[in-house]
Amino acid sequence: MYQLARERVEKFHTVASDKRNRSLDLRTFRIALARQLIDKYFSRKKKPLPSSIQVKKSVVPDHERLASVGNHMPEIVSNYRRSTGTTVSRQIVYRRLRHIGLYARRPVRRVPFTATHCRLRLTWSREHALWTPQQWSCVMFSDESRFSLLSDSRRTLIWRAPGTRYHQENTIE
């Protein structure tokens, strides 16, 4: 298998310069070739890869196991450890999730409204629909922000893709 990789790299070097300019650069070619060899290895699982073309465990393409959207970091790490039998650091998991487009965000809190809540809110909004800006200036709104002097505010974060803030799996009640 290593010989095959060497032959492909040598073939790339022998390509005419005008074709080489239109093709991938050598580094991208080697990365693509390494990924192809790794994919072949994982599909067969017979012989280990030669040490000259092995990559770090954090680069191995099994991020599907990591990408359980909505889970908290400790859950993701323990699920990965249970499913693969290998221990990975939180930093590796964090980098892999960022690489596939997931980001740590606070989940949206959804207050479960009853029919009475809905009726009262509708009544209130109808009563105040025609208020002037001067009347509204006398009202103080609160967003109930939390303030913490410590760096760790113990907030729960979930992993989600951009644009999925209000999806059902990303909200908590």
UniProtKB/TrEMBL annotation:
One Pfam assignment: HTH_Tnp_Tc3_2
Limits of the Transposase Tc1-like domain: 75-128
Protein's gene: TCB1_522
UniProt-recorded Gene Ontology molecular function terms: DNA binding
InterPro entries: RNaseH_sf (IPR036397), Transposase_Tc1-like (IPR002492)
Organism of this sequence: Trichonephila clavipes
Protein name: Transposable element Tcb1 transposase
GO process terms (BP): DNA integration; DNA transposition
